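Quick one: structure tokens for this chain, please?
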Amino acid sequence: MKCPVEGRIEKLEGGFKFTRITLRPVATIHREEDRERTGRVLEKAERACLVSRSLESTLMLESTIHVAAVLAH
């Protein structure tokens, strides 16, 4: 899995601050049947993340889930 992140910094009263952070995790699964479960796991991980919960900015989760091609032997 990879997780590109984009952040927006704005100058506010008191200095610069992150005002929006967008997480874009990309997960590869082997079966289409696992897509919904994988999405739920990604959302649960975002909600449980100590760093995410500690930030005072808007946090966006934009997940992408790919189904890997199965190679015949």
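The mean pLDDT is 88.
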